[in-house]
């Protein structure tokens, strides 16, 4: 009886202590809603001006400056920068919807890592189109069917994505931004772990989680599917089935996350390009993507690379693909630090072009420094 009274007294004391703190939170929430709507009123005016003057709704250079500013304002505060940035990205997503609804294309089906990257970049307030393959994303941007398209360009463990490189050779659209997405695999199921009879996923996540699966579910068969989203769909429909997939797939298909981050190596990131029909202004911390084919003479590639070295320009990545125009003819893809409007970058590109049969600038864009 005494224990029961003590518990009641503790509960009453807790509620009395929480009441004024909750009242403060409620008051702050009212202020936040007021400030958000005042901000939205300004956003509407920005949208009107952009429509009148033909300005782009999404400006990656402006986005970069806003996020840098709020991170600086947050220095030394309680909330981590990742939390602040996520809040601001959702606010900007709502702003896009107020200015003009944006359509974002990604490699489907819904719930894939490409979908997750798009959601983290553009938020929940824009419209999304899931497209069946990477060439369709480039085509949709070129035709104006979508405003922006996310294409996976390289993975830190698997290398470049060849359909994306091929698409870059044939598109009229520009690279306007890049996205870094850490790849985390999760075991999704609507049954308890001991009741799992089969595990579905795309072959790549199955390979990335091989050691974990062998340790935790050594006797459970693994079945390959066409995508992690298809695996999640099957797991949602089939009793005793589990899937390896994204947290977004769990939300979409109504699955519980049984185990998080089950990949054998935590060092796995995919980089995406955001394709658009617009140029991006400089931020002071930019990259430029190009491709080129060299003249057919000894030392031509070295001559091109020497130009960038002499101008002190760092090449952050270089790769090659067959040109698909004639046998043994190759196209080199390069990311370099700097913006096309920087004098030393512009000078280097002009000089490099003298050693090339073709050199095309794919776009300049803010350098992604933080994974989403």
TrEMBL record:
<feature type="site" description="Essential for prephenate dehydratase activity">
    <location>
        <position position="270"/>
    </location>
</feature>
<feature type="domain" description="ACT">
    <location>
        <begin position="289"/>
        <end position="366"/>
    </location>
</feature>
<keyword id="KW-0413">Isomerase</keyword>
<dbReference type="InterPro" id="IPR008242">
    <property type="entry name" value="Chor_mutase/pphenate_deHydtase"/>
</dbReference>
<comment type="pathway">
    <text>Amino-acid biosynthesis; L-phenylalanine biosynthesis; phenylpyruvate from prephenate: step 1/1.</text>
</comment>
<dbReference type="Pfam" id="PF01842">
    <property type="entry name" value="ACT"/>
</dbReference>
<dbReference type="InterPro" id="IPR036979">
    <property type="entry name" value="CM_dom_sf"/>
</dbReference>
<dbReference type="GO" id="GO:0004106">
    <property type="term" value="F:chorismate mutase activity"/>
</dbReference>
<dbReference type="InterPro" id="IPR001086">
    <property type="entry name" value="Preph_deHydtase"/>
</dbReference>
<keyword id="KW-0057">Aromatic amino acid biosynthesis</keyword>
<keyword id="KW-0028">Amino-acid biosynthesis</keyword>
<keyword id="KW-0584">Phenylalanine biosynthesis</keyword>
<dbReference type="InterPro" id="IPR002701">
    <property type="entry name" value="CM_II_prokaryot"/>
</dbReference>
<comment type="function">
    <text>Catalyzes the Claisen rearrangement of chorismate to prephenate and the decarboxylation/dehydration of prephenate to phenylpyruvate.</text>
</comment>
<dbReference type="GO" id="GO:0009094">
    <property type="term" value="P:L-phenylalanine biosynthetic process"/>
</dbReference>
<feature type="domain" description="Prephenate dehydratase">
    <location>
        <begin position="103"/>
        <end position="277"/>
    </location>
</feature>
<protein>
    <recommendedName>
        <fullName>Bifunctional chorismate mutase/prephenate dehydratase</fullName>
        <ecNumber>4.2.1.51</ecNumber>
        <ecNumber>5.4.99.5</ecNumber>
    </recommendedName>
</protein>
<dbReference type="InterPro" id="IPR036263">
    <property type="entry name" value="Chorismate_II_sf"/>
</dbReference>
<comment type="pathway">
    <text>Metabolic intermediate biosynthesis; prephenate biosynthesis; prephenate from chorismate: step 1/1.</text>
</comment>
<feature type="domain" description="Chorismate mutase">
    <location>
        <begin position="12"/>
        <end position="103"/>
    </location>
</feature>
<dbReference type="InterPro" id="IPR002912">
    <property type="entry name" value="ACT_dom"/>
</dbReference>
<keyword id="KW-0511">Multifunctional enzyme</keyword>
<dbReference type="GO" id="GO:0004664">
    <property type="term" value="F:prephenate dehydratase activity"/>
</dbReference>
<dbReference type="InterPro" id="IPR010957">
    <property type="entry name" value="G/b/e-P-prot_chorismate_mutase"/>
</dbReference>
<dbReference type="GO" id="GO:0005737">
    <property type="term" value="C:cytoplasm"/>
</dbReference>
<dbReference type="Pfam" id="PF00800">
    <property type="entry name" value="PDT"/>
</dbReference>
<keyword id="KW-0963">Cytoplasm</keyword>
<keyword id="KW-0456">Lyase</keyword>
<dbReference type="GO" id="GO:0046417">
    <property type="term" value="P:chorismate metabolic process"/>
</dbReference>
<dbReference type="Pfam" id="PF01817">
    <property type="entry name" value="CM_2"/>
</dbReference>
<dbReference type="InterPro" id="IPR045865">
    <property type="entry name" value="ACT-like_dom_sf"/>
</dbReference>
């Amino acid at each position: 009886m005494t224990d029961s009274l003590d518990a009641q007294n503790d509960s009453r004391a807790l509620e009395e202590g929480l009441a004024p703190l909750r009242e403060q939170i409620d008051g702050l929430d009212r202020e936040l809603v007021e400030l958000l709507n005042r901000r939205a009123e300004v956003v509407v005016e920005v949208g009107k001006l952009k429509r009148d003057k033909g300005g782009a709704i999404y400006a990656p250079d402006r986005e970069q400056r806003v996020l840098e500013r709020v991170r600086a304002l947050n220095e030394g505060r309680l909330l981590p920068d990742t939390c602040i940035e996520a809040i601001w990205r959702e606010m900007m997503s709502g702003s896009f919807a107020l200015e003009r609804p944006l359509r974002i294309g990604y490699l489907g089906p819904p719930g894939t890592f490409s979908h997750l990257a798009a959601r983290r970049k553009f938020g929940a307030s824009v419209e999304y189109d899931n497209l069946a393959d990477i060439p369709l994303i480039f085509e949709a941007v070129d035709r104006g069917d979508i405003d922006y398209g996310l294409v996976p360009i390289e993975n830190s463990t698997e290398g470049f994505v060849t359909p994306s490189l091929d698409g870059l050779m044939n598109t009229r659209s520009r690279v306007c931004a890049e996205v870094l997405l850490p790849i985390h695999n999760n075991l999704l199921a609507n049954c308890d772990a001991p009741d799992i009879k089969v595990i579905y996923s795309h072959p790549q996540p199955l390979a990335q989680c091989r050691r974990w699966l062998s340790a935790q579910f050594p006797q459970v068969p693994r079945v390959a599917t066409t995508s992690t989203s298809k695996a999640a769909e099957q797991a949602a429909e089939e009793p005793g089935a589990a899937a390896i997939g994204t947290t977004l797939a769990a939300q979409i298909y109504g699955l519980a996350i049984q185990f998080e981050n089950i990949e054998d190596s935590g060092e796995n990131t995919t980089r995406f390009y955001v394709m658009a029909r617009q140029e991006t202004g400089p931020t002071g911390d930019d990259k430029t993507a190009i491709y080129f084919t060299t003249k057919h003479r000894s030392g031509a590639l070295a001559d091109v690379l020497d130009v960038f070295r002499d101008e002190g320009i760092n090449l952050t990545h270089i790769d090659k693909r067959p040109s698909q125009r004639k046998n043994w003819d190759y196209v080199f893809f390069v990311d370099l630090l700097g913006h096309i409007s920087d004098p030393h970058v512009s000078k280097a590109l002009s000089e490099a072009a003298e050693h090339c049969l073709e050199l095309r600038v794919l776009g300049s864009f803010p350098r992604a420094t933080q994974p989403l």
